[in-house]
């Protein structure tokens, strides 16, 4: 481990904000203990889809758990590699450029994760189903897929739509919502970088149906990373088991 697999990387919207990403997401820490705890339960190597700069993967590796990290952004993976080396866990991270819907992972593991809403980058039902089936193929029989997504509240849409909001000092974010299409065009700008990306959301029931169609049994749906039950909150955390 401890290498970045050499592949030809297509441009990613995250490349332009690779150095800006960690300052932008500095306040997001609540999911880290959850994913590290679930990785410990797995008892082996974890595949993390959408590994980014290693916000979750580096703490996971620091707990002694090997991580195969997949991301479409070579720029984000370079930041991850650098920070993993600085943290002394570079040998536990195997970083690979690839699509979360078609990850370059021939290995089979007991746990696949996709933190920080990365599955919202899947644009439509067919892509979503294909990505879930691809994740299933990475799992040993009975292995688990854990990911978090959201479905926005009306008040959140109304409060943020079309406005530049300073999320961190000097780093601004703009959300342009399309409630009918259920898409979010998210723009970020700050020192040295700016980018725009499109996300798509669906309901918890639709996620459950897609997981079942892809060959999973949904074991739990949490409403937050403290394991509270899902009660139609904005956030949802899925724990699904591969059916044999």
What's the rounded overall pLDDT mean?
A: 95
Radius of gyration: 17 Å
Percent helix, as a range, is 25-40%
Order of strands, main sheet, comes to 1-4-3-2-5-6-12-11
Tell me the major beta sheet.
Answer: 8 strands, mixed
The total count of helices amounts to 7
| Gross geometry | globular
Q: What letter string, H or E per element, gives the SSE order?
A: EHHEHEHEEHEHEEEEHEE
Distance between the termini: 29 Å
Low confidence ranges: 3-7
Strand content: 25-35%
Q: Pairing-aware structural class of the strands and helices?
A: alpha/beta
- Oligomer state equals single chain
Number of strands: 12
Structure in words:
The protein is 26% helix and 32% strand. By secondary structure, it is α/β, with parallel strands linked by helices. A hairpin with a 2-residue loop joins strand 7 (164-168) and strand 8. The radius of gyration is 17 Å and the shape is globular. The model is unreliable at 3-7 (pLDDT under 50).
Short description:
This protein is of the alpha/beta class and 244 residues long.
Question: What does the secondary structure layout of this molecule look like, with pairings?
Answer:
Blueprint: E1 4-5, H1 21-24, H2 32-42, E2 46-49, H3 57-62, E3 67-71, H4 74-86, E4 93-97, E5 109-114, H5 125-137, E6 139-150, H6 154-160, E7 164-168, E8 171-178, E9 183-190, E10 193-200, H7 204-213, E11 216-222, E12 235-242
Parallel strand pairs: 1-4, 2-3, 2-5, 3-4, 5-6
Antiparallel strand pairs: 6-12, 7-8, 8-9, 9-10, 11-12
